Amino acid sequence: MSEAEKFVMTAAAEFDLASEPVSFCRCNAGHINDTFFVQCKDTDTQYILQRVNTNIFKDPEGLMDNIYGVCEHVKKKVIADGGDPDREVRKIILTKSGDKYFIDEEGGYWRAYLFIDGVVSLNEADKNTFYKSALAFGHFFTQLADYPAETLHETIPNFHNSVSRYNDFKKAVEEDKMGRAAEVKDLIEFALSKKDKCSYILDRIASGEIKLCVTHNDTKLNNVLLDEKTGDGVCVIDLDTVMPGSLLYDFGDAIRFGASSAREDETDLDKVYMDLELFEIFIKGFLEELRPTMTEAEVLGLPMGAYLMTFETGVRFLGDYLNGDTYFKIHYPTHNLDRARNQLKLIADMDAKMPEMEAIARKYL
Fold first, then answer.
1. Mean pLDDT over residues 98-115, rounded?
2. What is the DSSP letter of 189?
3. Which residues does 256 contact at the CB level (< 8 Å), separation at least 6?
4. HSE-up of 271 (CA within 13 Å, CB side)?
5. From CA 323, how far away is CA 317, in angstroms rounded?
C-alpha cells in the first residue's frame, strides 16, 4: 500500500463504519472535494469518504454544521412520512468519537456518508426525468420550509449575490491582468449592459416580497439521485452550498443547467438556446410540490431567477478568463471563454423569450 493509500485508509478508520475498512477507489466525478468509495470487511455496505476542499470552503466546521442540521431535519420528515431515512436523505457517519468530521495530521477535514444503492446520477435526461428532478428538488425544499434559515452559516459569502458577482466581474475587466479584455470587448459590453437587472432578487428579499429560506445553491440535475428502476427522485445530494437564500436561485440554476439546449461549453452557439418546453416541465414539477409555500412574487419571479443565475455564471466564467483562469478548472486555454460565450448566448435568448417565460409562470400561479 502506497503512502497516499495509507493516508485515505487512516482517515476511513476514524469513522464509525460497519466494520474495518479494507479497500477504496477514487471517484473522478466531482470537481471540488476529493471523494472515495470505501468498502468494509465482511459486509456489502459501502461508504463515501471525502476530504473537504478548504481552499474553497474556508469554514469546514460551519459547513458540516449546516449539512448535519439540514439532514437531521429532513430525516425527521422522512420518518414521519413512513420513508426510508437511509435512502431518502444523506446519512452522515460520525467519527468513533462522535464528531461530524475527522481532522488529519495535515489539517485536512474528512467526512463520511452512507452509500446509497440502486440509484443513478445523470448529466443529461429526457423530459420525464427532468420533470422528476423538479419534483425531487421541490419536495426537498418543502421538507425544509420550516427550517430556520437564519441559523445556517454562509459558507461562501455572496455566493449567489448577483450584484457582488457583477462587481467582481467589473473589477476583473478594469484590472485586465492577462491583457485579454480587448479581444472580448463585445462580451464585456453585453455583460455590463445588464447591471440594472442584478439586484432583482436582493431588492425583493429586502422588501419582504421574497422570503429568506434554506437553499441548495447547486441544483444541477446530477445532484438528484434517481431510482435506477423507476426513475423517481430518491435523494438530493451535494449539500456543501446549503445556505440562506431564495428559491429563485435554486430554480434558476436548475433551468440554466437543465433547460439549455446544449452543454455549458458548447462552442457552436447556433446550438445554444433556452428550451421553453423544458422550462415549463420544470416549473410544473417544482410548483407541484412547492406552490403552497411560495408567495405570488416568488412564483412570478422564477423567470428572473433563471435569467440571473445564467448571467451570474456567465460573468463568473468571463471574469475568471480575464483573471487568468484561477478559479474554474479548464481543459484547454479558452475553456472559460467558451463557457462565458455559451452562457451569455443563453441570456440573449432569454431576453427574447422573457414574455413567454413570464406567461408560463403566471399559468402556474
1. 96
2. H
3. 306, 309, 310, 313, 343, 346
4. 7
5. 10
